[in-house]
Structures are given as C-alpha cells and as structure tokens.
Write a structure and sequence with these properties.
Distance between the termini: 66 Å
CATH class of the largest domain: Alpha Beta
Largest sheet: 9 strands, mixed
Oligomer: single chain
Strand content: 15-25%
Number of domains: 4
Number of strands: 16
CATH superfamily of the largest domain: Bira Bifunctional Protein, Domain 2
Low-confidence stretches: 446-456
Radius of gyration: 26 Å
C-alpha cells in the first residue's frame, strides 16, 4: 500500500520526467491579494503567469499546495469525503502543451503508475453552452484513451457531458477573466457498475472526483468569450482523495492523512470511531485545518482569517465536549497532527509549542464565554417557562446566542431537557437550521463580493498600491530599523496594509518621515524592473519573507536605475508599475499593534 508521501513522490517524478519544474507549497494566507481569505487551490500563486507573465522556472510547472475551503465546514463529518483543509497536487502548462498531452498523461499516471482500476474511472466533459461549443477535442482524446485500455467509451455512459455548472471554469465575470472547459476524473466506489440513471451529477455519493484538468482557452470580453492566443492547462487533484482510493479505504478519515489523529482522539476519549464518526471527523478535520492555518501565522480573532480559525477551534471544543472529553483534548492533538505531517512540513516542530499555547488560551477563553453565557441561558429558560413561545421563537433564542456568543444550539437544547421543557428535538433542529440557512444565504451573498477571486483583480490601482508597498517596506528598513522585514501584506483598491516586526509604536514624527521618504521616491520617477536569479544569490541582495518557500529561480523586482544602486530589491512575482511617477502620493492613516511584536500600517493614496 502506497503512503501519501509515496503517491506525491510518484506524481512529481512522473511529471518531472515530462519536463515540469516543482514550485513551492506556499502559505494558505494570500500575500498581497484581497480577493480571498485563504489559498484554495494550487493555481492561486500562479495567477500572474496564467495571465501571460513569464515564470522563472519555465512553462511546465508542478507542485503540491496546502489549501483551505472553509465555506462548507458544516458539511464536514456527514460523509466520507468532505474536509476543510486538503492538499492539491497540480501541474500546469503556460502556453505549452494542451489537451492531448494532459489527458493522456493524467490517465497514464492514475492507471499505470498508481494502478487504479480503469473500469472504475469515468470522465466528464463540457457539452457546450451559449457561444461556447461542445469540447469535441476532449471527447475524441478520452475515447482513444479508454480504447487503449480495452474499454469502448460511449458518451454519457463512460464519458459524461455537462454544462457550465459542472464542466466550465472561470474565476469571475469581469472583462479580462480567463475561462475554459474542464474534464474531470471520477472513481466509482461501488463493486457493481453504475446503473443507466447514475452519473456524477445524480449519484454523487458513489462517484468520487479525484482530478480535474482545466483548459484555459478563452478570455472574457464585452460581448462574450473569445479564444486566447496562449492556452493554459491547470490540473488539480486532491491528494487525500487519491490516497483513499490507492490505500483501499472506504473513508478519507481512515487514510494516513487522518488516521493517526482518529487514533489519538479514540485514546483520549476512550470511545470508538465507528460509533462516533461525525464527532471524530469534525475534530480531526478541524484540528488539521487549524494547525495548517496557525502554522502559517494566523491567530484566533474576530476578523477574517482569525475568525475562521476561532470558529474551527470552537467547533472542536464543542464536539470534544459531546464526547465527554477533558477540557484540554484539543491541545493534546497538536503534537499528533505535527507528527503525522512532518514528512511534508518538518519546520512545524519549531512552532509546535507556541501554537499549543495559543490554542490552549483560546479554549480557556471559550470556557469563560460559556460561564458568561449560562446566566443568559437561565433567563431565557425562565421566559420560556412563563410565556407561550412556539418552537420557532425558542429556536430564535438559540440562534441569537450562537451568533452573539458562540453558544452551541445542542447545549441550549440540553438545557431545555434539564429544565423539563418538552420540545420535539427534530422540530427544534429544523427551526434552527432554517434560521441558520437564511443567515448563510445572506452571508454567501456578501462573501461573493469579497471572495469572488479573479484574475482581473490586478487593476491599475492595485498594481500602483503593490509598488507603493515595496516603497513603504524600503522606507521602514531604511529609516526605522534595518532588520525590518515583511510578515504579511494585503492590497485592495482602497488601501495597502503592511505587517512587520517592531516592539513599539511608531511616533508621529517617524510616520511623517516614512510618508515623505516614499513620496520623494515617487517624485523622482525611478524605473521599476526585475531580474530572474538563483535563489541563494538573490537572498544575498534582496528582501524576502523568512520561512517562506521559494523555487530555485526567483524573480527579484528592483526600484532604481540598476540592480546595484536600487533603493528596493525584493522577491516578488509582480505585477508592478514601470515607473514610480505612476504612483500617487501616499498617506499613512493608521497603525495597529497585532501582538507578539508585530505592527501593522495602513496607507492610501492622497485624494488631493
């Protein structure tokens, strides 16, 4: 049985033989991008290169990328496949090979390298919609692939065709977005063959998606979609799902990417997985996701990434409580998680103690929250006892407590039972779920605006802010402390945000000096260029983020007449302005203390 590590090694070896260069597995916290809370796919770091910028390592790339998809965390635990955190193996062609090579290679990898049963593999293609025709080329290629392995692949029996909802990829609707048809690979989980009415859309529980090849061959215009001169390939496959098939498991939580955690939970609670699958899955998944997010520098808070981490942790505390566990079960799971994945993240051991401390503080804080909330619960119980409230009204109290205090509805229901308030549990749960679903729909509509993603988010304004961030960084290590370096940044169309290590407030005089220095460099009209260098040589002359993984060849952007005399030299993928005169003057309008010796500055372009 192949381990996940061996599966990954075989994947990288296979595509390495076909000329692909490995790129790093980067932080799940996006750098200099406001459109996503977390990196949610392997292609995310490659956005500029899919748009046409040359990549330092060439046109054929591959990697494994840790990813977070938190929007459906409530689905975790209900089935064998949903996880919040996962690892995406990927390969890309940046205007090089296209459909024929990609589809032949990926099926060769699955069948001949990993030994998957070709009789259990099924494909999907784009059937055509609007002004985009059916993907006849992929159908023809796939038909020949299956024929090579002795299978006559009939349409909608072995090769299924679906519309844009299933087999079309695009990141947004703005003009300039890239898009294209995709072809997914599914593995049939049952021992019997699919029935005529069973397809990846009608029998989702039995068809497991293990890979998807996206063919970026169109660009969005004012009137529709037109063919691109540079056609890209973007393949992504879930390592955990592939491991489930290769390792002969019927449940993703029994693979080597989860099983050590499941075993640790069983030992800590003295309960079996088979009887408490939902609770075990939630704790294991949320623990792994929390460690990944925490190791990438996020701390629990009420905003953005920190809010997601806090919610994951509190759900863990809640379900551990349901298992009757001790209050410190969660911090006891940090080490098993680190040990389980140290083959992929050996540097986690250095941060294990600090992360355990942070999680412990969060658990204690939540315990205090529960103590604070209980008096409120008792008042609500008294009101229910003395007032004729229907189930929907009682559920509304539970929902409000959950939203405002993080108090779990199942605990609220337990209080109702304790005080002998008779209410049918299923009716209560349905009423609560209705409220929750309504709230979720509202949240998703709002989230669509913030988290829509998009290759077109590199607007003229954000590009200016991007270069201004480099200038602010240079001002900080030139005027304040030469040891200052970037710990994080974020750019929107309205402002830039920059995090750096410093154990004190900046004075008003220092902020004024920083502004003046940046604006003087803007007025000088300095050229902005880049060079591609060996990583180790580049580290001797350019700024980079400590602890970040970089490829052997890196792009160094510099601001100045030449590399030697430049006022700023940084590892960066771009994009940037051509000259600092393109940037409006800036003003620093806020600073924050993030704790742990980290400060944050906010700057924006002056309006007059």
């Amino acid at each position: 049985m192949l381990s996940s590590q061996e599966i990954l090694r075989k994947y990288l070896d296979f595509f390495g033989k076909h000329g692909h260069k490995e790129i790093p597995n980067v932080s799940v916290v996006p750098q200099e991008d406001s459109t996503l809370l977390f990196v949610n796919s392997g292609m995310f770091p490659l956005v500029p290169y899919l748009m046409g910028q040359p990549h330092p390592l060439g046109k054929r790339l591959m990697n494994v990328q840790r990813s977070i998809r938190f929007q459906d965390m409530d689905e975790v635990g209900k089935d064998i496949r949903h996880t919040t955190a996962f690892h995406m193996i990927g390969n890309w062609s940046l205007g090089d090979y296209f459909k024929k090579e990609q589809l032949n290679w990926i099926y060769e990898f699955f069948v001949e390298v990993l030994g998957l049963d070709i009789n259990r593999l099924y494909a999907t293609v784009f059937k055509g919609e609007g002004n985009i025709p059916r993907d006849e080329e992929s159908i023809e290629i796939l038909t020949k692939i299956f024929e090579k392995y002795g299978i006559k692949a009939r349409l909608n029996e072995r090769i299924f065709e679906f519309g844009k909802e299933s087999n079309w990829w695009q990141r947004g609707d703005a003009v300039g977005e890239l898009g294209g048809p995709d072809s997914e690979v599914f593995y049939w989980l049952l021992d019997r063959p699919p029935k005529p009415n069973e397809s990846p859309e009608t029998a989702e529980d039995y068809f497991l998606e293990i890979g998807n090849s996206v063919f970026m061959q169109y660009i969005k215009t004012e009137t529709g979609w037109k063919e691109l001169p540079q056609k890209n390939v973007d393949f992504g496959g879930g390592l955990e799902r592939i491991a489930m098939i290769v390792q002969g498991k019927s449940d993703i939580f029994l693979t080597d990417m989860f099983e050590p955690l499941i075993q640790a939970i069983s030992e800590l609670t003295n309960k079996p997985y088979e009887e408490y699958k939902k609770e075990f899955r939630i704790i294991a998944d949320h623990m792994r996701a929390s460690v990944i997010i925490g190791m990438d520098g996020v701390i629990p808070s009420n905003k953005e990434q920190g809010y997601v981490l806090r919610r994951l942790l509190r759900r863990m505390f809640r379900f551990a409580h349901k298992l009757g566990a001790e209050s410190d079960i969660v911090i006891k799971l940090v080490k098993p998680t680190v040990d389980m994945l140290d083959w992929l993240y050996p540097w986690w051991h250095e941060k294990e103690r600090e992360l355990t401390r942070i999680f412990d503080e969060e658990e204690k804080r939540f315990t205090r929250t529960l103590k604070r909330v209980l008096p409120k619960v008792e008042k609500i119980i008294d009101k229910i006892k003395t007032t004729q409230l229907n189930t929907e009204e009682i559920a509304k109290y539970a929902f409000d407590l959950y939203q405002s205090e993080g108090y779990p509805p199942e605990m609220f229901y337990e209080e109702l039972e304790h005080y002998e308030i008779e209410i049918e549990k299923e009716t209560f749960e349905n009423a609560y779920q209705k409220l929750y679903t309504q709230h979720q729909e509202i949240s998703r509509k709002g989230a669509t605006k913030k988290f829509k993603g998009g290759l077109a988010e590199h607007t003229e304004t954000t590009i200016r802010y991007h270069t201004a961030t480099h200038l602010l960084h240079a001002a900080l290590y030139t005027l304040i402390d030469p040891n200052i370096y970037q710990k994080g940044s974020n750019i929107t169309n309205e402002r830039l945000r920059f995090d750096f290590p410093l154990n004190r407030d900046l004075t008003e005089e220092e902020i004024k000096k920083l502004e003046d220095w940046v604006n003087e460099r803007i007025n000088e009209g300095l050229p902005v260029n880049y060079v591609i260098m060996d990583k180790e040589e580049a580290k001797k002359i350019a700024k980079y983020i400590p602890g970040e993984e970089y490829p052997e060849k890196v792009k160094v952007y510099y601001i100045g007449n030449d590399l030697k005399s430049a006022i700023s030299r940084e590892f960066c993928g771009g994009p940037h302005v051509k000259n600092t005169k393109e940037i409006p003057p800036i003003e620093i309008y806020r600073q924050e203390n993030l704790g742990g010796g980290v400060r944050r500055l906010y700057a924006r372009f002056k309006t007059s």
